[in-house]
Specification:
- The radius of gyration is 24 Å and the shape is globular.
- Helix 6 runs antiparallel to helix 10.
- It is of the alpha+beta class.
- The longest helix is centred in the middle third of the chain and has 27 residues.
- 43% of the residues are buried.
- It starts with a helix and ends with a strand.
- Helix content is 33%, strand content 16%.
C-alpha cells in the first residue's frame, strides 16, 4: 500500500483517469507492486519462480506492453529499491558461454523456420540486414549489449507509421513484437529484460512527432528506431531532429534507420546489384549528408529488409516468397488470429470475432511478412550479441570506440543545436517525460479528450495501442487555457492537430487555423508566422515566433459556425 500510494502521488498527474477508474487502477498497482517487490528479493523469490517455463510466456507478453500503469509501477519499485541499496540478485556475473550458446541456438532456430538452415550462406543472408558505415557504430551496438548484462535491461524505442504499429494484423503480430519475443528468449539467459516500445502511429508521418521524440519513447532507451520511409519527405532537414534527440538523451542510444524497397516481383532472379548496401537515402538526408553516416559516431546504422528478401527468395527458395512479396501484403490471414506457430501467441481478445478486417490496406503487410521482418532483425542483433559476449570473455580485447557527438548538419541551429523542443501531447502511447497536454489545462473548461480517428472498437479487437486521442470542442464549449513554462527564451510556440484519416475529415471537423481564436498571455493573435519545420500545412502553426522565459498562458476557443468541431494534439515549445 505504501508503494502504491507513493507511486500515485509521484506519477498520477501524468495520467487522466476518471473517478470510476481509480479503484481498479489502485488494485492493479497493488498487485503489481507486490509482485515487483518480490522480484527484488533473493533467488528463491517469486521472481525466480515466475521465469520458469510455465510462466515465462505470460511474463514476457504482459511486461512489454508499452506505457501500461503496471510497467510504470514496476520501474518505480525497481528504482526505489536500487536507490536504497535493496536491489538483490539482479547483477550476478554473466555466463558468457551460456548466453552465446542460447543466441546461436535461437539463430539456428530462425534459419530452420525459414528453411535455410541447410544453406551455407543462410546466416550471412539474414545478417546482411544491417549496414554500418563505420566499425565504431557496430562497436556501440555491441556496447549496449554489454551494458545490458550489468543493468539487467535493454530498451528499444520504435517510432514509425501504421506498418510499424501492425495495422491490419494484430498489434502483437507486428515485427517489433516478433523481434522482442525472440530476443527475450535469449536475454532470459542473461537475466536481462528486453523491452520494446512500439510507438508507431497510423496515418501520421514523421512530423510533428520527430520533434517530440522524448515525449513519445522516453529518454531511457538503448536503441531508437526510425521507421518512416513510406511517408517521409525527401531532403528535409527535419530528420536531423530525430538524430539530435538521440545524441542529447542521457541514455546515449544508438540509432537504427529502416530502409525501403521491399517489393519483389512474382517472377525474378538474383541480381547482385540489389543486395549491395545502400550508402545514401534522400529521405534520410540533410544537406546531402545521410544521417546514418553523419551520425555514425553515436552508433547510427541502417537496416535494409529488401536485401534479405532478395537473398531468401532467389537463393534461399523460401516458399512464402516464391510468388514475390505481393501475397504477403494481400495475405488472407490479415486480421485473423495468430496461429500458435513458432511460439507466437494468439491475441486473446480476438476470440469469437469474425475473421479478417472490414478494410485491408494494400500497403499493410500481413503477419507472415511481419514475422520474417522481426525474425531477421532478431537474427542479426543476436549475431552482435554473440560478438559482444566473445569480447567480454576476451580480456585482451581492445577498448571500443567512444561515442562521438556531431555538430549540426542542416537543421536550424537555434532550434536543434544545444536545445530541443519540449512537447506536450494527447496521443497514445506517450512517455511520462513531459506532462500530458490535457494536464496543462486550467480547471473549468468543457473541452473533451476524444478518439480523433474513431478507431476505439477496432483498437480493442486488434490490440492497437496507437490512439489519436485529441482535445476537442465546439464553439459552445468555450475556451481552454493551457499554462506552461518556457525554459529557453526567444524560440517558437507551436500548436498541432493530427491529420484526418485518409485525408477525409469526419462529421463537422474543420482545420484549427481560421476556425479558432488564439490568445497568448491575454493578447489575441491573428498573424501566425511561417517558421520551418514547425509550420506544417493543415497540421501545425506557430502561435508566436519568440516567447520569453517563464510562465505563459495560451487560450484556444473554437470559432465560426456552431457545428464547427476543432481539435488539437500537440503543444511544442522550448
Amino acid at each position: 500500500a505504501v508503494v502504491r500510494e507513493g507511486y500515485l502521488r509521484e506519477r498520477q498527474p501524468s495520467y487522466s483517469t476518471t473517478t470510476m477508474e481509480r479503484p481498479r487502477l489502485s488494485m492493479r498497482l497493488t498487485v503489481v507492486a507486490v509482485l515487483s517487490l518480490s522480484c527484488i528479493l533473493g533467488e528463491q523469490s517469486y521472481c525466480a519462480v515466475a521465469h520458469t517455463k510455465a510462466h515465462k510466456k505470460t511474463i514476457v507478453e504482459s511486461e512489454h506492453a508499452p506505457h501500461a500503469h503496471e510497467m510504470d509501477v514496476v520501474n518505480f519499485v525497481r528504482a526505489k529499491a536500487a536507490a536504497t541499496g535493496h536491489m538483490q540478485g539482479t547483477n550476478a556475473p554473466a555466463n558468457t558461454q551460456k548466453i552465446i550458446e542460447a543466441a546461436e541456438a535461437k539463430r539456428l532456430e530462425i534459419r530452420k523456420y525459414l528453411n535455410i538452415d541447410d544453406k551455407a550462406d543462410g546466416a550471412k543472408w539474414l545478417d546482411e540486414l544491417l549496414f554500418f558505415t563505420h566499425e565504431r557504430s557496430k562497436d556501440m551496438v555491441k556496447n549496449k549489449f554489454k551494458e545490458s548484462i550489468k543493468s539487467g535491461t535493454f530498451k528499444v524505442g520504435v517510432m514509425g507509421i501504421s506498418t510499424t504499429a501492425g495495422h491490419d494484423c494484430h498489434h502483437n503480430q507486428s515485427y517489433v513484437h516478433v523481434f522482442q519475443r525472440h530476443m527475450q528468449t535469449v536475454m532470459n539467459t542473461a537475466n536481462v529484460r528486453f523491452e520494446t516500445r512500439n510507438q508507431g502511429m497510423g496515418g501520421l508521418g514523421p512530423l510533428p512527432n520527430t520533434l517530440c521524440v522524448e515525449a513519445i519513447v522516453g529518454n531511457d532507451v538503448d536503441v531508437i528506431v526510425w521507421d518512416y520511409m513510406m511517408m517521409a519527405p525527401r531532403a528535409d532537414c527535419s530528420v536531423e531532429f530525430f538524430t539530435r534527440a538521440a545524441q542529447a538523451m542521457p541514455s546515449e542510444p544508438v540509432v537504427l534507420m529502416w530502409q525501403g524497397g521491399v517489393w519483389l516481383p512474382e517472377t525474378g532472379k538474383f541480381d547482385g546489384k540489389n543486395v549491395k548496401p545502400k550508402r545514401s537515402n534522400p529521405k534520410q538526408e540533410c544537406n546531402r549528408a545521410w544521417m546514418v553516416n553523419y551520425y555514425s559516431g553515436i552508433g547510427a546504422h541502417s537496416a535494409d529488409l529488401g536485401v534479405v528478401l532478395h537473398y531468401l527468395a532467389y537463393l534461399g527458395g523460401v516458399r512464402s516468397l516464391e510468388n514475390g512479396t505481393d501475397p504477403l501484403f494481400m495475405d488472407p490471414l490479415k486480421g485473423a488470429p495468430t496461429e500458435p506457430d513458432f511460439s507466437e501467441p494468439r491475441y486473446t481478445p480476438y476470440t469469437g470475432q469474425a475473421q479478417g478486417r472490414r478494410r485491408l490496406a494494400r500497403h499493410h503487410p500481413g503477419p507472415m511478412f511481419h514475422r520474417i521482418w522481426g525474425l531477421t532483425w532478431a537474427h542479426s542483433y543476436l549475431g552482435l550479441l554473440i560478438d559482444a559476449m566473445h569480447e567480454v570473455a576476451n580480456v585482451d580485447h581492445v577498448a571500443p570506440y567512444k561515442r562521438q557527438t556531431n555538430q549540426v548538419k542542416g537543421c536550424d541551429k537555434k532550434f536543434c543545436e544545444n536545445v530541443l523542443p519540449k512537447c506536450h501531447i494527447t496521443l497514445r502511447p506517450r512517455s511520462s517525460i513531459s506532462l500530458p497536454l490535457e494536464d496543462l489545462a486550467e480547471p473549468g473548461h468543457k473541452w473533451q479528450i476524444i478518439d480523433g480517428d474513431g478507431r476505439a472498437k477496432v483498437s480493442a479487437e486488434y490490440g492497437y495501442v496507437d490512439l489519436k486521442m485529441v482535445l476537442s470542442a465546439y464553439p459552445k464549449d468555450g475556451p481552454i487555457t493551457l499554462k506552461f513554462n518556457v525554459e529557453h527564451p526567444d524560440l517558437p510556440v507551436t500548436l498541432c492537430e493530427v491529420p484526418c484519416p485518409w485525408g477525409r475529415c469526419k462529421q463537422q471537423r474543420v482545420p484549427m487555423l481560421g476556425n479558432v481564436k488564439i490568445e497568448f498571455d491575454g493578447t489575441v493573435i491573428t498573424d501566425f508566422p511561417n517558421v520551418k519545420p514547425f509550420t506544417q500545412k493543415d497540421m501545425c502553426f506557430v502561435v508566436v515566433a519568440s516567447a520569453l522565459k517563464g510562465e505563459h498562458r495560451l487560450t484556444v476557443t473554437a470559432a465560426g459556425g456552431e457545428n464547427n468541431n476543432v481539435i488539437f494534439s500537440h503543444l511544442i515549445h522550448y
